[in-house]
Design a protein that fits this description.
Elements: H1 10-18, E1 21-28, H2 31-37, H3 44-61, E2 66-72, E3 77-82, H4 90-114, H5 125-140, E4 148-155, H6 164-176, E5 181-185, H7 192-201, E6 205-206, H8 214-222, E7 244-245, E8 252-253, E9 257-258, E10 265-266, H9 290-295
Helix pairs in contact: 3-8, 5-6, 6-7
């Protein structure tokens, strides 16, 4: 008797496709932040060793996984690594990543010398998010079968209120494309932008308590693909800061004025909207309301 050949169902093929991941990693290379962090928590060289080990573990989980690294500087951001174009050996991956990362840091520091920065300064998070989304859109248009994309932000710099509009546009674009944005915060303070990004897109927001064990946090929380996350108990954010930044002074505000046409936010009342040019009317606070007039009865 001839042996019966097992039948391969199409459902099995789709399950395999769900396990394939396209991981876009955004690395914060702000030299001012890392110079301050070197004396307190984590060295930049040690941070890179954790990241390289994490990237190798993601590529080892599935041979079809793809990893793309984008460096986020103060004045610019750029692609520094793509596993689809790099060598297959882990040593070649690490050498290619570190070499391009060093070249990017030197270039970004030269641009920083031209413009003075007060304090730590903020990184160009809006630019790196836009580049990651553009890369993902190219993957979407390459064909019907593509890996499941997600974005991981390894960020430590404080939020830049001047990037509020661009970052929110990137967040809503990721939500529309069903691309989750994971956030691993390395700084001392929480990031309101990344809290909103992870909450709106369905990603994971995590602030490690011990940065010495960063690789354990990354491999435990962020290494799993989107299909496996349905069976895992991932950390949930305790609270999300939904405060917005005004369009006029770029300050974080609790209450403000919103344009009814373009939804621009202002901390003070303006005659015209600086975004769309709409004319605002002056609120009449001294005029008696109609409800109060109806309640009055004529005296007899």
């Amino acid at each position: 008797m001839t042996p019966v050949q097992p039948k391969l169902s199409t459902d099995f093929v789709f399950v395999i496709a769900d396990d394939v991941s396209l991981l876009m990693v955004l690395i914060d290379t702000n030299p001012f932040f890392w110079s301050a962090a070197n004396t307190t928590s984590l060295l930049f060289s040690k941070f890179l060793s954790h990241v390289v080990a994490f990237l190798n573990s993601v590529l080892l989980l599935n041979q079809l996984n793809q990893v793309v690294v984008i460096a986020t500087g103060i004045n610019t951001c750029d692609y520094v690594y793509d596993s689809a174009a790099a060598g297959a050996l882990p040593n070649q991956r690490a050498e290619s990543l570190l070499q391009k990362l060093v070249e990017f840091v030197v270039k970004d520091e030269q641009l920083s010398k031209e413009d003075s920065v007060d304090g730590i300064g903020s990184s160009l998070l809006s630019g790196s998010l836009s580049m990651a989304l553009c890369y993902i859109q190219r993957v979407f248009r390459s064909g019907p079968h593509h890996p499941q994309p997600r974005i991981l932000c390894l960020h430590g710099s404080p939020d830049g209120p001047e990037q509020y509009v661009a970052i929110m546009n990137a967040i809503f674009s990721a939500q529309r494309s069903m691309v989750p944005i994971d956030s691993c915060l390395l700084g001392a303070q929480h990031s309101a932008f990344l809290q909103q990004a992870s909450y709106i897109t369905g990603g994971v927001y995590l602030k490690p308590q011990q940065l010495d064990g960063l690789f354990q946090y990354l491999s435990t929380v962020f290494a799993s693909d989107l299909y496996s996350r349905n069976f895992l108990q991932l950390p949930k954010p305790v609270g999300v800061d939904f405060r917005a930044s005004c369009f006029c002074h770029k300050n974080t505000i609790d209450m403000g004025y919103i344009c009814s046409v373009c939804l621009s936010i202002f901390c003070k009342h303006h005659k015209n909207c600086s975004t769309c040019g709409s004319v605002f009317g002056q609120a009449q606070t001294n005029a008696p309301s109609t409800s109060n007039q109806k309640r009055k009865t004529p005296e007899t």
